[in-house]
Specification:
It contains six helices and five strands; from the N terminus they run H-E-E-H-H-H-H-E-E-E-H. It is of the alpha+beta class and 160 residues long. The chain has a single domain, classed as Beta-Lactamase. The protein has a five-stranded antiparallel sheet. It holds the Pfam family PAS. This is PAS domain-containing protein.
Length: 160
């Protein structure tokens, strides 16, 4: 490996650790292989604490059967899968840390699951990318609440 390749690899690893997105790599048995800085910061769990453990050992509230239904096509068909906050507000019950959206107790999340192909062409691992969408969720919920109030006010005014 050349010095340029080593430098690029170092940058990529540094990026994964510092990006404001959760990055988790799981093997076929749902054992955690990679746990980046975002995940460490929001969960309070060090990579050394979670590496090699199953997702369900670390987060016993995650429904294993449901999660496996989501990941199976990623492993078998090499397709992406998505989990949105509208379907399920969060996978990881992280506290909301943003003062602007203090109305929400938990971090709302969108998650993308992607297949990771090995050098042999096999998919033995998947990557989960966890996006904090609390601001978007809080704004949408507030907009919907305002729309309901406006509709109720309109109904009251037309019934009088």
């Amino acid at each position: 490996m050349s010095q340029d390749d080593m430098t690029e690899m170092h940058w990529l690893i540094d990026m994964i650790q510092t990006v404001d997105v959760g990055v988790v790599v799981l093997d076929r048995e749902n054992r955690i292989q990679v746990w980046n800085g975002f995940m460490e910061s929001h969960s309070g769990k060090l990579p050394s604490e979670v590496r090699g453990k199953t997702l369900f050992e670390v987060f016993d509230y995650i429904d294993e059967e449901w999660f496996n239904r989501k990941t199976r096509p990623v492993f078998e068909l090499r397709t992406r899968a998505f989990m949105t906050w509208e379907q399920r507000p969060f996978l990881f019950k992280f506290p909301n840390y943003r003062p602007i959206t203090g109305s929400e107790d938990v971090m709302y999340q969108n998650i993308t699951l992607s297949a990771l192909t090995s050098t042999t062409g096999q998919v033995d691992n998947i990557c989960m990318m966890i996006y904090d969408v609390t601001d978007i969720a809080a704004n949408k919920k507030e907009l919907e609440a305002v729309q309901v109030r406006l509709l109720e006010d309109r109904e009251k005014s037309t019934s009088n």
